[in-house]
């Protein structure tokens, strides 16, 4: 299914925030490019704002701006696209506490829901029907001190953990964290190469050589559409 053009919140009115509104950067239909559901047509709900500044971030445009959307309007926009999968992303979605309600309502509506989160904020209140894709920041990210290790005991087989690897040193650090916390016994673990820092083939070779119980992944959407917004 070909992706549709993004619907940007700038086309909406911008009322003051209330308990039923979230600040969004965009909503769009594309293929999921990462994690367990890679390849599925997916509606992306991108929230505005993030407290981290990872050096490899590819969505810095979501740090600021955005417009307020009623949660019911978000649900209506998602429904228009007619697909089962929804990914709530950012920025850092959990920096807006009202996203917890949106996630539960999406689950109630029967969607297959995933949440992409930095791992720096408590995931305890997220509906367990949501597949929580939790980053663990490597030293190469520049934000390793922001990892919230208390999230690890909360992980279930329905969740996923992601490492973005920026160097051989990052790989070895991630490998050690993987085994120290037995992450592969809790949920799927994903290793991704940081673009322009580690060649994808090199990371794949490291994983195979070390026989790590992890899933290698690249960003499918970028292979297809590059940096085109709304894809």
TrEMBL record:
Pfam families found in the cross-reference section: Radical_SAM
Protein residues bound to [4Fe-4S] cluster: 50, 54, 57
Record has RNA-binding as a keyword: no
Binding site for substrate: 31-33, 46, 89
GO molecular function, one term: carbon-nitrogen lyase activity
One biological process term in Gene Ontology: tRNA queuosine(34) biosynthetic process
SUPFAM superfamilies: Radical SAM enzymes (SSF102114)
E.C. no: 4.3.99.3
Chain residues that bind S-adenosyl-L-methionine: 56-58, 91
Residues binding Mg(2+), per UniProt: 59
Enzyme kind, highest EC tier: lyase
Cofactor comment text: Binds 1 [4Fe-4S] cluster. The cluster is coordinated with 3 cysteines and an exchangeable S-adenosyl-L-methionine. Binds 1 S-adenosyl-L-methionine per subunit.
Alphabetical keyword list: 4Fe-4S, Iron, Iron-sulfur, Lyase, Magnesium, Metal-binding, Queuosine biosynthesis, S-adenosyl-L-methionine
Residues of the Radical SAM core domain: 37-231
Cofactor: [4Fe-4S] cluster; S-adenosyl-L-methionine; Mg(2+)
UniProt cross-references to Gene3D superfamilies, sorted A to Z: Aldolase class I (3.20.20.70)
Family from the record: Belongs to the radical SAM superfamily. 7-carboxy-7-deazaguanine synthase family.
Cited PANTHER family: 7-CARBOXY-7-DEAZAGUANINE SYNTHASE (PTHR42836)
Role played: Catalyzes the complex heterocyclic radical-mediated conversion of 6-carboxy-5,6,7,8-tetrahydropterin (CPH4) to 7-carboxy-7-deazaguanine (CDG), a step common to the biosynthetic pathways of all 7-deazapurine-containing compounds.
HAMAP family, A to Z: QueE
Stated name of the protein: 7-carboxy-7-deazaguanine synthase
Taxonomic lineage from the root: Bacteria, Pseudomonadati, Pseudomonadota, Gammaproteobacteria, Lysobacterales
Gene of this entry: queE
